[in-house]
Amino acid sequence: MAGRQSAGILLHRDGAGGVEVLLGHMGGPFWATKDAGAWSLPKGEYDDAETPEDAARREFTEELGLPVPDGDLVELGTVRQSGGKTVTAWALRGDLDPAAVVPGTFALEWPPRSGRLQEFPEVDRVEWFPLDVAREKIVKAQAAFLDRLAATLSPPPE
């Protein structure tokens, strides 16, 4: 596999002020006090034995503890994050209650070099955001997915 690759689903719905997207705040001690740039669409890594779409569906369920809502996935393409990871995403119109989320967990040695493994949630909270607010919250490279989503939802020019 050439580099780390990740896939995810950007859930969106019509809110009172326009389109809203579901983002998760990254869990673990590094992200605890960060807000801007610390939110992501539900996503995760996969290897060549799995298709990106299958990985996106699996990771959505693993990270949020909820099934992927029914509906058609709309491809949003790929971005490369600053750490070099490639992320492929799909948009999906759907709804879910953030209070129903039961996040998956990961183990991390914390504090560093302590020899103690601690469990942390993959996401420590999940919220719906209007697109303009989501642009401030989301990992910088993933903002391209918000622009691509907006482009798929706008009517074609006359």
Explain what this protein looks like in three dimensions:
- This protein has 158 residues and is of the alpha+beta class.
- It has a single domain (5-153), classed as Nucleoside Triphosphate Pyrophosphohydrolase (Alpha-Beta Complex).
- Helices cover 20% and strands 37% of the residues.
- The strands form 2 sheets. Strands 1, 2, 3, 4, 5, 6 and 9 form a 7-stranded mixed beta sheet that branches. It has a two-stranded antiparallel ribbon with strand order 7-8.
- The longest helix has 13 residues, at 52-64.
- The chain is globular and about 60 Å long.
- The termini are far apart.
Task: Write a concise keyword list for the protein shown above.
Nucleoside Triphosphate Pyrophosphohydrolase, 20% helix, 158 residues, alpha+beta, two-stranded antiparallel sheet, single chain, seven-stranded mixed β-sheet
Give a summary of the structure in a few sentences.
The chain is of the alpha+beta class. It has one domain: Nucleoside Triphosphate Pyrophosphohydrolase (Alpha-Beta Complex). Strands 1, 2, 3, 4, 5, 6 and 9 form a seven-stranded mixed sheet that branches.
Overall 3D geometry? Answer: globular
Strand tally: 9
Largest sheet: 7 strands, mixed
**Would you identify the regions where 5 or more consecutive residues have pLDDT less than 50?**
none
Secondary structure tally, helices: 3
Report the CATH superfamily: Nucleoside Triphosphate Pyrophosphohydrolase
Percent range of helical residues: 10-25%
The average pLDDT value, as a whole number, equals: 93
* Cα distance spanning the termini: 44 Å
The number of domains is 1
Determine the CATH topology. Nucleoside Triphosphate Pyrophosphohydrolase
Structural class label: alpha+beta
Return the CATH class.
Alpha Beta
